[in-house]
TrEMBL record, chain A:
GO terms under cellular component: cytoplasm; nuclear envelope
Annotated organism of origin: Struthidea cinerea
Catalytic residues (UniProt): 329 (phosphocysteine intermediate)
Single GO MF annotation: phosphatidylinositol-3,5-bisphosphate phosphatase activity
UniProt lineage: Eukaryota, Metazoa, Chordata, Craniata, Vertebrata
Record family assignment: Belongs to the protein-tyrosine phosphatase family. Non-receptor class myotubularin subfamily.
Protein name listed in UniProt: MTMR6 protein
UniProtKB/TrEMBL annotation, chain B:
Cell compartments where the protein resides: Cell projection, Ruffle membrane; Cytoplasm, Perinuclear region; Endoplasmic reticulum
Main location: membrane
Xref: Pfam families: Myotub-related, PH-GRAM_MTMR6-like
Gene Ontology BP annotations: negative regulation of autophagy; phosphatidylinositol dephosphorylation
CDD domains, A to Z: PH-GRAM_MTMR9 (cd13211), PTP-MTMR9 (cd14536)
Name this polypeptide is given: Myotubularin-related protein 9
Domain Myotubularin phosphatase as annotated: residue spans: 124-499
Length: 615, 549
């Protein structure tokens, strides 16, 4: 506990600050300011802590979080600052899974609730929903003991014609044993999205079983005789991989495939791209042109567009050509997860519902071994493994929600909340790098699943504009991917910088109004029932009179609930109608303050002289 | 002149109309004196397009064999293409459109011929008079007076006949001050902040010249707006070096020695060709769908448009801050005081004054701070982003102002009575209209053209209840506070409603907007119903009680 700590505004040009007390708990860093407002920061969210050079007011400490919050404290005494710094360094770097918050987090659920919670998302059920197993696809038990591929789930769907030797042979020809398996089945088109890793083709190697495998996938689609193989990497990268004995499919060796590169960059490029983006957006007194050129130089929006373009290509191949598509990158757990899941999201409206989106993440990300632990740096590990691949996926989804405001059951807050928990390590879902690891950690016994908690508060995540009739089952979303459609996601990257958001949130207002409408509907039912009851007792004439007087009335509800303060998960504003008119210093045009203190410009005093001489 | 002389081919059949995101339509094209009319002959679903010739910014023609193609680029940024069979017809039509869209006499413009089909409930020409404004003002303060010194436009040709000035300054002094200000635009009241009695004045630059001329009456005039012992701020919309250079041409700025109670702050708000080029570049960038991300972002950056937005908003916030936070009076001017000055003073009022955020209040603001204040609409809005003429006086000054209002609107979506469509409407009518409101460059010209007698006012039309309902913001809830927008680049956005309007399918966005409105409407219905039922129940209950007694 350290008192008299100042919390500075990240963007304010004035030296306005909040003074309060800083507490360190086992799991959180807590700051309580003089007006008793609390700022909680989970240790797992801390990405970096930095001690700046000592100033007259104290020792500045900057904490960067994985949810893009940046807090700037000034601690009066250097020794305290040093202690906090060291403690935070230790607390934010966990060496073992068992030390993560999820293992100590107790949401007061009993054991059966815990078990039920983990059963909420059932992938077997999901494959059934898609329509497999069927005449062409079956459940394979080849990987039941993780013998063929450690990073795949136990239960995999493959073409019926793919026998076990073919599977085994194919897996030996694929990086990390990640052989082609079913990711999504489109029952109307009878076409499939399959995923795998790159083939170990080098310059000339081939593998008959692998060729058979692809043929089997192709044949499992009765409506089209060719299939696409999408290599999501830039061609140059794929070619470079050949030198290392890996590479891509040679069209001559595989019959009836159409091979396509789509050029999404690798995790290292994405990491440095986001880094650049954050550097730009974090600059104080940023000019429009610096912002735009920074946005351009970071390449971030270009990458998001590339991911979405790939997904559109995939979705169109299935919906328009009825062709099956095999997607891979290098290891098949980053770009492949992005493209497969976004493709399915465009194809199947189920994934645009709250529950469906959870299923999608469980399926294409968690079960197929996206390395959440490494990518999100849950344990102290190799910084080169960190990459915002999942963040990028969420951003792509957000872009779609912007273009199709009525197609999604969930809202932006849902995406942000998932992002929050991918990094929080508070729930077991995203811990570890693959299913095998999760089983070894006994996560289902020792931790809780995030999904039931999100579902319990799903009111907060519902999109009030959602219209299920907008896109009936299996209608393709066709987003416009012209560059100007992609925007900087302010609510993600400046979630905690209040001064940057609209002071009145149209979203919150609509959200609350729609919520209130439901309540009012209930009230009306209740009132009507009561009146009916009364009418049974009283005479009818009376009622008729009343109905005439009952025309539009002065609104008695002076303060409808939608104008009350209600804590929404949105970063935008706690209170719908609160306006921070009181704080011009929040905004960057307050250069005035400094202009006041500036000395008179030299030129003016020169004029002084001129004026006197002429007088 | 007869329009018929200009129309060699009044009608062409089998013309195909192409618009982005719409299937091509075949139909008949007709030319009249003021309109290009296209109507599809399909009986079931007849489609008509009426385009004012004055809305046409540029026209291109191409030929493939005997099929001619005319590409029409409009001032509202829309682009349409007409395929006309027959080379002669096509050439005739193209030359007619060209001639009719560039008529040089104002009195030949459509507003002089337009006969309204609606009943005029209120003559918009007299809806917003400065006299009414003054009446409101005199109910809170008696420090100001209405001066008729400019009757017959004898003192300042670009000012209206009446102006509001400090009470202690007589007309004789005003005449002297007028001689000291560029274009005779002496300082007048732009806005009075009731909350603390501070005033915002606007004028043109003082004519100090290189030898530092002064004018005692000018000093007295603006000092009259200060409280004793308090300072005021002069916001010069030009950077210091530009203001200094202006002295060589007889212009200048208020020097500290003569205006010791005033602090000068220089801002950099661009005008004229810099704005026009920025506008042209932005529209070019938005119209090219083939740009990859890097190219799009660099084009957006190179246009500098959002930089202008940020600069302007910053200056307006600064003026508002001086008045509301510092409790100081403010004088705003640039060079002529007809462009950037008006942008700053009108935006500051949007920030400070809740009344300006209502529909009528905003209309009054446009009349007061733009039309009466002498913004040369006719010159500035002669051409839009597609024109090749590149005249020095063309500039999207008013559009930039509207976009800044839109940016604030986005940040305070519940604080404005009007919606985005209203702003777009004003943009369209400033460039091409059947109404006379935006014709002419100042009141003087409007009086000479007898616009109030000979043309219809935009306000007469728009303020009718059936039109007004289209421009109302369902989220509006009167907000009496000062609204401070964020000017961070992350908070500013491209005005898609204007710049991407014709470049992307907007169906889904429109449907979503409709749904938003429905939710709000439904909420009001439900509340009314609940209240009615509650009352009914209450009356039943009391009825029972009385009977029981």
């Amino acid at each position: 506990q350290v008192e008299q700590v100042k919390l500075l505004d990240r963007f304010s040009t004035s030296n306005k600050s909040l003074t309060g007390t800083l507490y360190l708990t086992a799991t959180h860093l807590l700051f309580i300011d003089s007006s008793q407002r609390e700022t909680w920061i989970l240790h797992h969210h801390i990405a970096a802590v930095e001690k700046l050079p000592l100033t007259t007011s104290g020792c500045p400490l900057v904490i960067q979080c994985k949810n893009f919050r940046i807090v700037h404290f000034v601690v009066p005494r250097e020794r305290d600052c040093h202690d906090i710094y060291n403690s935070l360094l230790q607390l934010s770097r966990t060496a073992k899974y068992e030390e993560l918050y999820a293992f100590s987090y107790n949401p007061k659920q009993n054991e059966s609730e815990q078990v039920k919670g983990w059963q909420l998302i059932d992938l077997a059920e999901e494959y059934k929903r898609m329509g497999v197993p069927n005449a062409y696809w079956q459940l394979s038990d080849a990987n039941r003991d993780y013998k063929i591929c450690e990073t795949y789930p136990r239960e995999l769907y493959v073409p019926r014609t793919a026998s076990k030797p073919i599977i085994v042979g194919s897996s030996k020809f694929r990086s990390k044993g990640r052989f082609p398996v079913l990711s999504y089945y489109h029952k109307n088109k009878e076409a499939a999205i399959c995923r795998c890793s790159q083939p170990l083709s080098g310059f000339s190697a081939r593998c008959l079983e692998d060729e058979h495998m692809l043929q089997a996938i192709s044949k499992a689609n009765p409506s089209n005789r060719y299939m696409y193989v999408m290599d999501t990497r830039p061609k140059l990268n794929a070619m470079a991989n050949r030198a290392a004995g890996k590479g891509y499919e040679n069209e001559d060796n595989y019959s009836n495939i159409r091979f396509q590169f789509v050029g999404i960059e690798n995790i290292h490029v994405m990491r440095s791209s986001l880094q650049k983006l954050l550097e730009v957006s974090g600059t104080r007194g940023l000019s429009v042109n610096d912002f735009l050129s920074g946005l351009e130089n970071s390449g971030w929006l270009r990458h998001v567009k590339a991911v979405l373009d790939a997904a559109v290509f995939l979705a169109k191949a299935i919906a328009v050509e009825s062709a099956s598509v095999l997607v891979h990158c290098s290891d098949g757990w980053d770009r492949t997860s992005q493209v497969c899941s976004l493709g399915a999201l465009l194809l199947d409206s189920y994934y645009r519902t709250i529950k469906g989106f959870m299923v999608l993440i469980e399926k294409d990300w968690i079960s197929f071994g996206h390395k959440f632990s490494d990518r999100c740096c849950q344990l102290d590990g190799d910084p080169k493994e960190i990459s915002p691949v999942f963040t990028q996926f969420l951003e792509s989804v957000w872009n779609l929600t912007e273009q199709f405001p009525q197609a999604f059951e969930y809202n932006e807050a849902f995406l942000l909340q998932i992002h929050e928990h991918v990094h929080s390590c508070q729930f077991g879902n995203f811990l570890g790098n693959c299913q095998k690891e999760r089983e070894e950690l006994k996560l289902k016994e020792k931790t809780y699943s995030l999904w039931p908690f999100l579902l319990a508060e799903q009111k907060k995540y519902q999109n009030p504009l959602y219209n299920p009739a907008f896109s009936p089952e299996l209608t393709l979303l066709e987003p416009n991917t012209v560059s100007f459609n992609f925007k900087f996601w302010r609510n993600m990257y400046h979630q905690f910088d209040r001064s940057m958001h609209p002071r009145q949130s149209m979203f919150n207002l609509i959200m609350n109004t729609s919520e209130q409408n439901k309540q009012l509907e209930e009230d009306i039912k209740e009132l009507e029932a009561k009146i009916k009851q009364r009418n049974g007792q009283s005479d009818v004439v009376l009622v008729k009179e009343q109905e005439q007087t009952a025309h539009p009335a002065p609104v008695a509800l002076k303060t409808p609930p939608c104008f009350q303060k209600e804590q929404l998960p949105m970063p935008v504003n706690d209170a719908v109608r609160t306006i921070e008119g009181s704080n011009t210093a929040d905004n960057r045009y307050s250069e005035l303050v400094s202009e006041f203190s500036k000395a008179e410009p030299a030129v003016v005093s020169l004029e002084y002289g001129v004026a006197r001489m002429t007088c | 002149m007869e329009f018929a002389e200009l129309i060699k081919t009044p009608r062409a059949d089998n013309v195909a109309l192409h618009r982005p995101f719409h299937p091509a339509v075949e139909g008949t094209l007709c030319l009249t004196g003021h309109h290009l009319i296209f109507s599809s002959r399909r009986q079931d679903n007849a489609e008509e397009l009426w385009l004012l010739h004055s809305n046409i910014d540029s026209i291109e023609k191409r030929f493939v064999g005997s099929l001619g193609t005319i590409i029409i680029k409009c001032k509202d940024l829309r682009i349409i293409q007409l395929d006309i069979p027959g080379m002669e017809e096509c050439l005739n039509i193209a030359s007619s459109i060209e001639a009719l869209s560039t008529l040089d006499s104002v009195t030949l413009m459509y507003p002089f011929f337009y006969r309204p089909m609606f009943e005029v409930l209120e003559d918009g020409w007299s809806s917003f008079l400065l006299e009414q404004e003054f009446e409101l003002l005199s109910s809170v303060t008696n420090e100001w007076r209405l001066s008729c010194v400019n009757k017959e436009f004898s003192v300042c040709p670009s000012y209206p006949p009446v102006v509001i000035v400090p009470k202690c300054i007589d007309d004789e002094a005003l005449r002297k001050v007028a001689l000291f200000r560029h274009g005779s635009r002496f300082p007048v009241l732009s806005y009075y902040h009731k909350k603390n009695g501070m005033a915002m004045l606007r004028s043109s630059q003082p004519l100090t010249g290189t030898n530092g001329r002064r004018c005692k009456e000018d000093e007295k005039l603006i000092n009259a707006t200060l409280r004793s012992g308090r300072r005021g701020f002069v916001i010069d919309t030009r950077p210091l070096n530009v203001a200094q250079q202006a002295r060589a041409k007889g212009g200048g700025f208020e020097q500290e020695v003569h205006y010791p109670q005033w602090r000068r702050i220089h801002k950099c708000i661009e005008r004229f060709n810099i704005l026009q080029e920025s506008f042209i570049k932005l529209v070019e960038a938005c119209n090219d769908q083939s740009h990859n991300m890097d190219r799009w972002l660099s084009k957006l950056e190179a246009s500098n448009w959002l930089t202008h937005i940020k600069e302007l908003l910053t200056a307006a916030c600064l003026a508002a801050q001086c008045i509301d936070r510092e409790g100081a009076s403010v004088l705003v001017h640039g060079s002529e005081g007809t462009d950037s000055t008006l942008q700053v003073t009108s935006l500051a009022q949007i920030i400070l004054d809740p009344r300006c955020r209502t529909i009528r209040g905003f209309e009054a603001l446009v009349v007061r701070e733009w039309l009466l204040a002498g913004h040369p609409f006719q010159q500035r809005c002669a051409q839009s982003a597609y024109s090749n003429s590149k005249q020095k006086w063309e500039a999207p000054v008013f559009l930039l102002f509207l976009e800044c209002v839109w940016q604030i609107h986005r940040q305070f979506p519940c604080s404005f009575e009007f919606n985005e469509q209203f702003l777009i409407l004003l943009f369209e009518h400033a460039y091409a209209s059947q109404f006379g409101t935006f014709l002419g460059n100042n009141e003087n010209e409007r009086a000479k053209l007898k616009l109030p007698q000979k043309t219809m006012s935009l306000w007469s039309w728009v303020n009718r209840p059936e039109e007004l309902s289209r421009f109302q913001n369902p989220l509006y809830e009167a907000n009496s506070l000062v609204i401070w927008p964020s000017v961070a680049p992350q908070s500013l956005q491209l005005w898609e409603g204007v710049f991407l309007r014709w470049n992307r399918p907007s169906k889904f966005l429109e449907e979503a907007e409709e749904e938003r409105i429905n939710i709000i409407k439904y909420n009001k219905e439900l509340q009314a119903k609940v209240n009615a039922l509650r009352r009914q129940l209450a009356e039943l209950e009391t009825g029972e009680e009385t009977r029981e007694e």
